[in-house]
Write a structure and sequence with these properties.
alpha/beta
Length: about 70
């Protein structure tokens, strides 16, 4: 049975998902943030993140916005 997985990743060396693996990728482009600030960023943008992931396989989150990439 094939499972659909989502991945959250932070870093510079990330490319778009290949062959549908992972199914969804949320790339964090926030720089160095503490856990508390990262949780707050997720809280502020959660609805936008969910909507973007419903429409895209690769989504980037920076300190200001959520952007569907691919």
């Amino acid at each position: 049975m094939s499972s659909r997985k989502s991945v959250v990743q932070s870093g510079q060396d990330v490319r778009a998902p290949v062959d549908g693996k992972p199914w969804k990728l949320l790339l964090l482009r926030t720089g160095n943030l503490g856990t508390r600030d990262l949780k707050e960023l997720f809280r502020q943008h959660l609805a936008e993140i969910v909507q973007a992931l419903e429409q895209n396989s690769l989504v980037e989150l920076d300190r200001l916005r959520v952007q569907g990439v691919a």
